[in-house]
Amino acid sequence: MADFDDIYYIRRIKHGHTDDFIYIARRYQRMVFTIVCKIIARREDAEDITQEIFIKVFQSLDKFREESEFATWLYRIAYNTAISEIRKRKYEFTAIEDNFANIPDENLPESIDRINTEDKLKCLDIVLKKLSPDDALMITMFYMNNHSIQDISNITSISVANVKVKLHRIRKFMNFEINKLIQQ
């Protein structure tokens, strides 16, 4: 039903009822801001970029072909805009693939099973901050926002197979880092 509502308003906007864009902006404001905040650390910058994203979406609505869900299309614009901003600022992150691709899974200890939930969450928060914005967003989309691997592939323009590989390597990195924290 929500998709029908989105399509209804999008069609109205395309036919000149531009005031209806407020429905789209209100409905997706929090989602877009959350995506941007996962990539852009400074809140003020994230707010500015969120506004830019909605301007872009409004100006590009005629390109939305209704072949996918509107939320996925919007998510992709938000993701690409925030990543472009990061690249402009030239932040550097170490690619997880460079460090953890060749570590066999059986070499990762499972110390995390021995600590309480509160400590697990603290460790998880520390490790999430060590991830590149791309990797943190991918983990967030999959585990916290329940996006399918196919959705993540569509949003990030990464093949389904590569999304699976990246998620596996990110989990491996996170497990390794959490176990290092536990052992300190």
Write down the overall geometry: elongated
SS class: mainly alpha
Return the average pLDDT rounded to an integer: 81
Tally of domains: 2
Helicity, in percent?
A: over 70%
Question: How does the major sheet shape up?
Answer: none
Order of helices and strands: HHHHHHHHH
Provide structural commentary.
The model is unreliable at about 90-105 (pLDDT under 50). The longest helix has 24 residues, at about 160-184. The protein is built from nine helices and no strands. It has helices at about 1-15, 20-40, 45-60, 70-90, 95-100, 115-130, 135-145, 150-155, 160-184. It is about 70% helix and about 0% strand. It has two domains: about 5-90, RNA polymerase sigma factor, region 2, helix turn helix motif (Rna Polymerase Sigma Factor, Chain: A, Orthogonal Bundle), CATH 1.10.1740; about 115-184, Winged helix-like DNA-binding domain superfamily/Winged helix DNA-binding domain (Arc Repressor Mutant, subunit A). The protein has about 180 residues and is mainly α.
